[in-house]
Description:
This is Response regulatory domain-containing protein. InterPro entries: Bact_response_regulator, CheY-like_superfamily, Sig_transdc_resp-reg_receiver. Keywords: Phosphoprotein. One of its GO terms (biological process) is phosphorelay signal transduction system. This protein has one domain (about 5-139): Rossmann fold. Helices cover about 55% and strands about 15% of the residues. It has helices at about 10-25, 35-45, 60-70, 85-95, 110-139; strands at about 5-10, 30, 50-55, 75-80, 100-105. It has a 5-stranded parallel β-sheet with strand order 2-1-3-4-5, with helices on both faces. The longest helix has about 30 residues, at about 110-139. The protein starts with a strand and ends with a helix.
Amino acid sequence: MGIKIMVIDKDKKLLNWLSETLALAGYEAYTCTDEDSSIEKVFQLKPDLILLGFNKPAKSGFFLASELRLSAEHIPVIAMTSFYNKAECLKLIEVCNVRRCLLKPFNPLDVITIIENFSQLTESALREERLVLAEAHIS
């Protein structure tokens, strides 16, 4: 079973493109345009990573990131936006617990590289956790 990635954005073309890109790279991609049901879908799917669209006129990205921070903080969230500059992205990272920002337009390699970095961190953390459990079991 591959890494599960939830992509939440209002742009259906972007969702289709990302879904295809992620599937070709061997990831399980799930998409959602409906902000109201996205939190519920996150709990159902239990993704390993979330790509979340932030649109400046709407507060929905902030709301969803805040909800995820409270209820699913262990799942890394990567912001996708074309409305924020790098300084504003740093604020998103600080305020919304977003791990990274992808500035639109981005290319497939940007997305895959970021996901691979997160998956390596996840695998490393799992190995470390197994070592701690094994050491605890031996003692």
